[in-house]
Amino acid sequence: MGELVDFFIRSRHFILFVLLEVLCFYFIINTSNYWGVTYFNTSNRYAAKVLAWSNAANEYARLREVNADLALENQRLNAQITQLLQSKPAAPAAYQADSTFAKRFKFTVAKVLNNTTQLANNYITIDKGTDDGIRPGMAVISPTGLVGKVSVCSPHFSYIISILHSEFLVSSRLVKANEIGSSKWDGMNPRLIKMIDVRRDKPVEKGDSVVTSGFSLTFPPGILIGRVRTTGVQPNQTFHDLTVDLATDFSNLAFVYVIENLLQPEQEKLEKQIEKEK
């Protein structure tokens, strides 16, 4: 306490000077309209800047929470869209899928913890595992398109084989051309993928959407893979040479959705039973 008193005593002239300056400034503002208006406008301008910086900092701090909320909302919307597509498949008008079939896909949102894009065989790690109902073989998509397939699980984490993997192959369909083929990464550009086994007698246009065909127990039909970037013909082959822009930006992947086919065990059991009887 004594040191504080000593400080004020030593600095009494400077403190008095500051108090007098403040008092003069106060009188100038209150006795002159010009300086009063100038002070008011200047103070408001700087106060607005400080408030804008404060709001920007608060919004940035809430981005993680906002992203998580958006991921949950996308999970709900993906489930509704898939259910709608399954209830009205591309089939004769007389066909009507039952409610169980239409609701066969379940979506679980997960956060990406690790992700590679420059290897020959790329992988992704997410923060959901067997305790969350995740198991090997489940499909994985992003808010914009296909991602890969679950390979290995622990109670709290899962290891996903990315579509950017030398052994990943998915049955695909060209929307406009209505032609079935397969999508496979050639190990070159992480933004591009090849679509193979599309017959050359079928016309293919640039910009045509490539989606999952539905001929799979893993992926729901209609999941966007990408759009045709270039078309050509493989030398001495009867197939198109198609390069596709991937719909998913793997360099900026934050959340994914793991898809469970609730009817997959039943279908697999039936198919295995038929194979044994042949």
UniProtKB/TrEMBL annotation:
It comes from the Bacteria. Keywords: Cell shape, Coiled coil, Membrane, Transmembrane, Transmembrane helix. Residues 60-87 form a coiled coil. Residues 112-260 form the Rod shape-determining protein MreC beta-barrel core domain. InterPro entries: Cell/Rod_1 (IPR042177), Cell/Rod_MreC_2 (IPR042175), MreC (IPR007221), MreC_beta-barrel_core (IPR055342). One of its GO terms (cellular component) is plasma membrane. The chain crosses the membrane at residues 12-29. Involved in formation and maintenance of cell shape. Belongs to the MreC family. This is Cell shape-determining protein MreC. It comes from Spirosoma validum.
